[in-house]
Amino acid sequence: MMRRREKLSIVVVVIALAAALVLIGAGMFLRGGLADVWHALAAPPEDGSWRAVTFDGEPVGNADYLITVRWGKIVGGYDDCNGWSYQDEKPDAKGERMILSTLVLCTQDEQRRRIYRLLIYAPRMELASERELRLLRAGHVGVFRRCKPDEASRRCVPQ
Question: Quick one: DSSP state of residue 123?
Answer without folding.
Answer: P
